[in-house]
Amino acid sequence: MEYVAVLLPSACLAVLFYFVIKAIFNADRAEREALARAEEMQDAEDARNREAAREKNDGQEIDPS
Length: 65
Fold this sequence. Notes:
Keywords: Membrane, Transmembrane, Transmembrane helix
Helix content: over 70%
Region (Disordered): 38-65
Number of helices: 1
Order of helices and strands: H
Oligomer: single chain
Transmembrane segments: 6-25
């Protein structure tokens, strides 16, 4: 019984540590997925804006000089 009393606190801390690290990794994964979705939406919006600008210029290229 002495062994259980000695090892139980360490085992409980190990289990707690596992769940904390797991929660951190899950939050990081969710944040990366949300960022990827936001970037994808921004890229689509930028593409629509470029297409609208091309149509507005009637397909004529603007000379930058």
